[in-house]
UniProtKB/TrEMBL annotation:
This is Diguanylate cyclase. CDD domains: EAL (cd01948), GGDEF (cd01949), PAS (cd00130). Residues 527-558 form the PAS domain. SMART domains: EAL (SM00052), GGDEF (SM00267), PAC (SM00086). InterPro entries: Biofilm_reg_signaling, EAL_dom, EAL_sf, GAF, GAF-like_dom_sf, GGDEF_dom, Nitrate/nitrite_sensing, Nucleotide_cyclase. It comes from Malaciobacter halophilus. It comes from the Bacteria. Residues 669-807 form the GGDEF domain. The chain crosses the membrane at residues 6-29, 305-326. Residues 816-1070 form the EAL domain. Keywords: Membrane, Transmembrane, Transmembrane helix.
Length: 1070
């Protein structure tokens, strides 16, 4: 008992110890892999630094070679010779690095081999350049093969095995490397053009493309870096560098055919190189930052690895100790086991005989197993059993042992003295040496002499003799007292078994009936009982209720009468396999009622066995799960369905669209996504309440569904946005576009019709975007984004129209570049001018101030309004320079009015500030600087910030407005009422004024607009804010507003925007 307890205690310790070894091994392995990955990252970063050094010199050599070719050898010669030496030096460093370090992956080796092959051609290329035996195109192509090979290798190394914490920095570095390459190509091409003092049209197109690629990469770079990294970038890659390069670019824009250029190539070279070097500084900064972070992570990983290894060693020592202890205990237990083995063998014989009888084997099986077990356990030569037949003659019924062949030589009959004495006296006969005692044994051949000792035991049933059981051994004196006693007990048990078998047969039918009766037929579950051949013998009332069959109709029939035909042959084979091999089967199955209706049920079929292990019956228990299935279907429907409109909701959009894209790709037929957004729906919600808004959306959904085909899928994304998934339009793209455009316009026209909700007659328009699929390398998310972008383009174009997504942006890009260049020129030449529109207090009949509105005095197109150029200014960051000019100009104008002794104490000049400006990290600083430079008072200036801009980043907006307030500059929310603000959010913003958007004074949608105006007035009054109504143009509008106690206006009724000199008159009249 003590050993067993100790054994269990050691096992309790050993099992968790093994677990600790297992998990710590996995942890150590993972940390080792992390360490390996960090070593690889360290190698890759050092590779990039060496490769960047080589790349930088190759880019410079490429540019100088281009200038040298353009000047026909007159320029860049000395610089080129020096640069070649620098390139060779960097190549030597690169080669030494490659030799010293191992690059194991095949991909890495392949890229390095490619670089070496390309660099092998460098000397031959230089010879052609010096001899002017190569043109610019081929020169660039040759150098580009080298630089591209290096950049490709850097890309592969920077994107492999990247840790999630540093992956953004590596990606940012790649953007900078690509930007630097495009800038280097631009430097080379313009060096060539300035050297030969002319430029081809094809070169200009290529340069514009390179500029666009640089901007795109810089934009992507900015999107993934943090504030600290962005500040470093701005400090090194400043606007001065950009402006200097832009000055040279402007020399080549707006040309006709081939243009003569008059610009020094060396100046261009130095200017562009400064900008490119700034990019190189940033690349080096990011690489060193990554190296630093990787080093910190490596240090942490090594410490973790050490601690884990210590834990692993402790666990191993504990395991070894436990194993040694277990071995000692096991050895001791084995010795004890051997001492008991002999005794156990003897008693196993008796126990086995008892078990055979207890477990209701047939008597034939019991006798067979008793013979074999006794012979095997005691290594007997032979054991056999003789029973009386119908003629009362002894017949051998079972035998076992290696000497079975001698049975034919023994006289087995009831006249034999040995058997006769045993049967008559019902006592065992033991002969331990047949050569000494042959009185009871008749032998007919010498083979019988192989038996040295024999024991014969009587078998009987009640008072009737049944036969004998004999045991033969090859050994003399084999049957000692212990064995004789055990065999005596065993034969008594077998005799009891013979008697019991007869009783068992009588009880079997009774027991089977009792077993079947043990199953409750009053259960709510349907039940059916079959015999072993699966013929129905009984069913309960629930069976009749579910299937429609009564007990009399199914008794004697096979359950196949319920077969639905919905399952395969394999299904039923698996079902019967489980029943016959595992005793039961449970699952869902479809069956058929008497009336032919197919229904689902949850069933359990169990095999019933008797005490002999033989199957006697099968019992099926089942219940109808039709309602459960319906509930499941309703739940799935609820998950995928919009509760308000009954359409599909957005949860199913990607799944359905991916399926449609796959089918469209397989069958080569186009489909489309139609993205619908209702114009101004929020006004209906805000003015009439959400109940009316919901009823309106339900009618809109019905209209969209009514326009659609049966196969089209209509989805409500949420709010007032809907999507129609249109499939199988046409195999021809042009025809598909025509058809889907016609369908989209039909939807738009349908939605344009008035809808009557209660007493309200409501109208709305819709902005619709369309995107076709399949598109190369675009998944469902891309297609939805494309349709969404097209929808927003529809809104930008004036709403209530259908727009297609397209990728033909070349014309738009060129127009963008043209406006950007002209804006830079406008800033430089001060082509802008401020106009001032009066803000008027109608109740007190005085001027409140002016809104400063910018105009562009374009040298060719005349006066341009902001909507023709501000979008480009914002996207190119020129808005910062323009905003500074506006603030500076407005302050100077105020100073001018003061000098003219005009009373402006109560006057404020409002200046519009874009999101780009106030979100700029340096916004507050440059505002302070401008006021300080002009020695101006901040009380005269008010900043107007558009409502949508504020709610792009509410937290930032509140901080900026507070900072301005601390400077003494007041702020107002411009364009108020478009739907971003609420009373709660406005109360958090420290503004002094709100300006209602001019659109709300239109006659259209009077009911909606009246509600919004009332709401805005109430907000202003509750928060004690000034409310200025924009767009006042008519007397009736003034009377309308007076009735609402609103008196502060701005609009053409009082004054159009005026030049500064004309505004003086308004001030004098106040």
């Amino acid at each position: 008992m003590k050993n067993k307890t100790l054994y269990k205690m050691i096992l309790i310790i050993l099992i968790p110890t093994i677990g600790m070894i297992f998990f710590s091994s996995i942890y150590i392995y993972n940390k080792y892999k992390t360490l390996d990955r960090l070593d690889t990252i360290d190698l890759h970063i050092n590779y990039v630094l060496n490769a960047e050094f080589l790349l930088n010199n190759l880019q410079k050599e490429r540019g100088m070679s281009a200038g040298y070719i353009g000047s026909l050898g007159k320029k860049f010669k000395k610089d080129l010779i020096f640069q070649k030496k620098q390139t060779d030096k960097s190549k030597e460093f690169f080669d030494n690095f490659i030799v010293k370090n191992n690059f194991n992956s095949q991909k890495e080796k392949s890229h390095i081999k490619k670089i070496q092959n390309e660099l092998f051609k460098l000397q031959k290329l230089r010879t052609k350049v010096l001899a002017l035996d190569i043109d610019l195109t081929n020169e660039l192509k040759s150098y580009n093969n080298m630089t591209n090979a290096i950049i490709d290798s850097m890309t592969v190394l920077l994107t492999s095995k990247a840790d999630s914490k540093i992956s953004n920095k590596l990606l940012a570095t790649l953007y900078l490397i690509n930007t630097k390459e495009y800038a280097g190509l631009e430097r080379a091409m313009l060096s060539n053009s300035f050297s030969k003092e002319s430029i081809k049209k094809s070169y200009l197109k290529k340069i514009i493309e390179l500029v666009s690629l640089q901007n795109s990469n810089i934009k992507n770079f900015k999107n993934i870096i943090n504030i600290e990294e962005l500040n470093f970038f701005y400090n090194t890659f400043n606007s001065k560098l950009i402006e200097d390069v832009q000055r040279f670019r402007e020399k080549i824009y707006n040309f006709e055919n081939e243009k003569i250029l008059n610009e020094d190539a060396k100046n261009w070279w130095n200017t562009s190189t400064k900008r490119i070097d700034a990019l190189g500084i940033n690349i080096e900064y990011f690489m060193k930052t990554v190296l630093k972070e990787a080093k910190q992570l490596k240090h942490y990983t090594i410490n973790s690895l050490i601690y884990s290894f210590i834990l692993w060693l402790v666990s191993m020592f504990a395991s070894v100790f436990s194993v040694i202890a277990l071995r000692r205990i096991t050895k001791k237990e084995t010795e004890n086991f051997k001492s008991l083995k002999k005794q156990k063998k003897i008693y196993n014989i008796l126990n086995n005989a008892n078990e055979l009888i207890i477990y209701n084997y047939t008597m034939q099986e019991v006798l067979n197993k008793a013979c074999s077990f006794a012979t095997k356990e005691l290594d007997l030569a032979l054991s056999f059993i003789c029973l009386f037949d119908k003629n009362q003659n002894l017949q051998i019924v079972e035998s076992f042992g290696e000497k079975k062949s001698i049975l034919s030589n023994l006289e087995i009959n009831n006249k034999n003295k040995l058997y006769k004495k045993c049967i008559v006296e019902r006592k065992n006969i033991i002969i331990n040496d047949i050569f000494e005692d042959k009185s009871f044994l008749d032998l007919f051949s010498e083979k019988a002499n192989e038996i040295k000792s024999i024991a014969v035991y009587p078998l009987y049933k009640k008072d009737e003799s049944m036969g004998v059981m004999a045991f033969c051994s090859n050994d003399i004196n084999f049957f000692d007292d212990e064995i004789v006693a055990i065999f005596d007990k065993m034969t008594n048990d077998l005799s009891y078994g013979l008697e019991k078998e007869e009783n068992e047969k009588l009880k079997l039918e009774y027991e089977e009936e009792m077993k079947l009766a043990s199953y409750s037929f009053d259960s709510q579950e349907a039940m059916a009982i079959t015999d072993a051949n699966a013929n129905i013998i009984k069913v309960n009332s629930s069976f009749t209720k579910i299937t429609g069959y009564s007990n009399n109709e199914v008794v004697g029939k096979n359950p196949k009468i319920l077969k639905s035909g919905k399952h395969t042959k394999e299904f039923y084979e698996r079902l019967w396999f489980d029943i016959l091999n595992y005793g039961s089967w449970s699952g869902e199955i479809y069956n058929k009622r008497k009336n032919g209706e197919i229904y689902p049920e949850r069933a359990t079929i169990t095999a019933i066995k008797n005490n002999m292990g033989k199957i006697t019956h099968f019992i099926a228990q089942f219940f109808d799960i039709t309602e459960i299935k319906r509930s499941q279907e309703r739940l799935i429907h609820q998950i995928q369905t919009d509760n308000l409109t009954g359409l599909y909701n957005r949860t199913i959009l990607n799944e359905k669209l991916n399926q449609a894209i796959a089918l469209a790709t397989r069958h080569k037929i186009f489909g489309g996504v139609i993205f619908i957004d209702l114009d101004n729906f929020k006004y209906i919600n805000d003015s009439l309440g959400h109940d009316i808004g919901d009823l309106f959306l339900i009618e809109i959904a019905k209209k969209i569904k009514g326009c659609s085909r049966v196969d089209d899928i209509v989805i409500r994304l949420g709010g007032d946005e809907f999507v129609i998934l249109v499939q199988n339009i046409s195999s021809q793209k042009e025809e598909a576009i025509i058809k889907i455009e016609k369908f989209a316009n039909k939807v738009r026209d349908t939605l344009d019709n008035p809808i009557k909700i209660d007493s309200h007659k409501l109208t709305t328009t819709s902005s619709i975007g369309v995107a076709l699929f399949p598109e190369k390398n675009k998944n469902s998310i891309d297609i939805i984004k494309n349709a969404d972008a097209a929808m927003y383009l529809s809104k930008e174009q004036g709403k209530n129209r259908v727009m297609f997504y397209h990728e033909d942006l070349d014309k738009k890009t060129r127009n963008y570049l043209r406006i950007e260049n002209e804006l830079r020129e406008a800033i430089k030449n001060e082509q802008f001018e401020l106009y001032y529109q009066k803000k008027f207090d109608y109740e007190n009949k005085k001027v409140l101030g002016f809104e400063a509105l910018i105009r562009w005095n374009h040298p060719k197109k005349g006066v341009l309004y902001p909507d023709s150029f501000l979008e480009v200014a914002q996207k190119s960051d020129l808005i910062i320079q323009i905003g500074k000019w506006v603030l500076n100009s407005a302050i100077k104008q105020i100073k001018q009015w003061e000098k003219q002794n005009i009373d402006i104490n109560d006057i404020k000049v409002s200046i519009n500030i874009s999101y780009t400006e106030f979100s700029h990290p340096d916004f507050i600083n440059y505002v302070k600087t401008i006021f300080k430079q002009n020695s101006a008072d901040t009380k005269y200036i008010e900043f107007e910030i558009d409502e949508s801009s504020i709610f792009k980043d509410l937290t930032l907006a509140i901080k900026r407005i507070k900072d301005l307030k601390n400077l003494g500059i007041s702020s107002s929310i411009d364009g108020f009422g478009v739907g971003y603000a609420s009373l709660n959010s406005i109360s958090k913003i420290p503004v002094d004024t709100i300006k209602l958007k001019r659109d709300f004074l239109r006659k259209k949608d009077v009911l909606v607009n009246d509600s919004i105006i009332n709401m805005v007035i109430e907000i202003a009054q509750k928060l004690d804010l000034k409310l200025i109504i924009e767009g006042v143009e008519q007397e009736e509008q003034i009377q309308y507003l007076i009735k609402k106690n609103s008196y502060l206006y701005q609009g053409y009724y009082f004054s159009k925007p005026l030049k500064a000199n004309d505004a003086i008159n308004l001030l004098n009249k106040k």
